[in-house]
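Budget justification aside, the reviewers requested a transparent look at the raw inputs and outputs of the sequence design task funded under Objective 1. We therefore reproduce one unedited record. The lines immediately below are the structure tokens for a 454-residue chain.
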């Protein structure tokens, strides 16, 4: 009934507009003019009505006219168009016709870009992402990674940090597939990973600032997948990265952006013992000192056993670092260096700085416990029982380490079992006037910690 009313209304309209007509595709307007504009409106209305009710078969004829003659009339032409052509594909058994229809489906997405690619919410990058998604789902193992890569690389190059996250995911997926089939793609794959990481990091920062937890969760999931794929790709070994970046660092020693990218990549891949990492850090530090470049120079100083310089540079890195997790790691590295020099008191100070930056960091507690154990004989050199009481404080640190940081639990438990064996026996406690089970005592010497007798 509604369709009859619509046709009657349009028939009246035809009488009003007269015979002068031009199609929208010819005039560059949404509906065209004259009778052709009426024809466009009619067909858009009819195919939309059929498609909304799930009758894609009857929607096709009217949709095809609107699609060909007035493609700028409405986004519904494309939203329903992919469903209509998709329905045709699913109901076609002839392989050749199925292939032709698949090409038609991709063309629907391409035409939507032409006419609605500037949509602020569902623009070109969004459209291409859905085009790839549709292509991948329908083609399965027959999907051509090179084709997908070509589509999505254009989007990433054009939109940069504004690229929709789904497109970034397909960008790295297709690049990885190309790597699997062609080892010569390795350097491009590494550059793609850098670009994808930069995009996702920028979007994560925006989501965090906006307290958008849903978006943040989505981005983190995509980033984890990309990082995992890169780490297991075979392109990530340090020898290969040194070979790729060694000469290029020298060629780009005045290119600060390139140097920073290289330092970030090599550190992320834990290739911070390579000469490329050291050189890039040095050149970058001369132009624009950052926590990242200072860290690179500090690691080189450690390798050269110049510990005084290393400590100063780690301090510089920590002072400039804005990420508290990384800052804590900087301070912990200084603690390790001072521990190696047997300067336990100073090492503990840096462990505490690390914990001030990241209270959930287990390694500093583990190191303090290790230092307490190492110095137990010197704290009470003349009293064997009190010397054993130092191990109460030792175990306290390992207990605290696993409490705040589950990642150290296995090693902490192993240490706890070992050092509990050093506790004073019940007989020794009974015979020692300063000790009593359950009593709080203060461990002397440089330790100066309160603990409980077990």
């Amino acid at each position: 009934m509604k369709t009859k009313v619509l046709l009657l209304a349009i028939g009246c309209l035809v009488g009003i507009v007269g015979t002068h007509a031009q199609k929208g595709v010819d005039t560059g307007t949404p509906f065209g003019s004259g009778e052709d504009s009426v024809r466009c409106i009619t067909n858009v209305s009819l195919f939309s009505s059929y498609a909304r009710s799930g009758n894609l078969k009857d929607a096709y004829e009217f949709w095809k006219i609107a699609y060909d003659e007035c493609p700028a009339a409405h986004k519904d032409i494309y939203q329903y168009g992919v469903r209509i052509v998709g329905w045709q594909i699913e109901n076609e058994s002839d392989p050749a016709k199925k292939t032709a229809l698949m090409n038609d489906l991709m063309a629907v997405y391409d035409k939507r870009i032409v006419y609605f690619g500037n949509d602020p919410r569902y623009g070109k990058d969004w459209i291409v992402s859905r085009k790839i998604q549709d292509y991948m789902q329908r083609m399965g193992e027959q999907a051509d990674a090179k084709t997908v890569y070509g589509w999505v690389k254009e989007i990433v190059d054009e939109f940069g940090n504004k690229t929709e996250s789904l497109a970034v995911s397909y960008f790295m997926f297709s690049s990885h597939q190309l790597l699997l089939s062609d080892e010569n793609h390795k350097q491009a794959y590494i550059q793609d990973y850098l670009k994808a990481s930069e995009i996702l990091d920028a979007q994560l920062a925006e989501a965090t600032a906006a307290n958008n937890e849903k978006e943040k969760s989505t981005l983190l999931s995509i980033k984890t997948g990309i990082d995992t794929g890169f780490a297991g790709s075979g392109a990530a070994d340090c020898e290969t990265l040194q070979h790729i970046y060694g000469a290029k660092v020298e060629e780009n020693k005045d290119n600060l952006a390139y140097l920073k990218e290289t330092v970030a990549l090599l550190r992320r891949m834990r290739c911070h013992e390579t000469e490329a990492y050291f050189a890039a850090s040095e050149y970058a530090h001369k132009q624009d000192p950052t926590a990242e470049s200072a860290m690179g120079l500090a690691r080189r100083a450690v390798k050269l056993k110049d510990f005084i310089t290393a400590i100063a540079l780690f301090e510089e890195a920590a002072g400039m670092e804005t990420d508290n997790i990384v800052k804590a790691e900087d301070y912990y590295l200084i603690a390790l260096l001072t521990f190696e020099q047997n300067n336990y008191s100073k090492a503990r100070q840096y462990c505490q700085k690390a914990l001030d930056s990241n209270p959930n960091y287990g390694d500093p507690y583990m190191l303090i416990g290790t230092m307490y154990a190492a110095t137990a004989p010197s704290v009470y050199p003349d009293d064997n029982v009190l010397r054993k009481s130092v191990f109460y404080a030792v175990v306290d640190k390992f207990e605290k380490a696993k409490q705040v940081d589950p990642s150290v639990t296995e090693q902490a438990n192993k240490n706890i079992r070992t050092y509990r064996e050093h506790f004073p026996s019940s007989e020794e406690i009974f015979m020692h006037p300063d000790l009593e089970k359950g009593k709080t005592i203060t461990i002397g010497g440089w330790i100066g910690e309160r603990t409980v007798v077990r």
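The first strand starts at residue 21 and ends at 22. The two ends are 89 Å apart (CA to CA). Computational costs for records of this kind are itemized in the attached budget.
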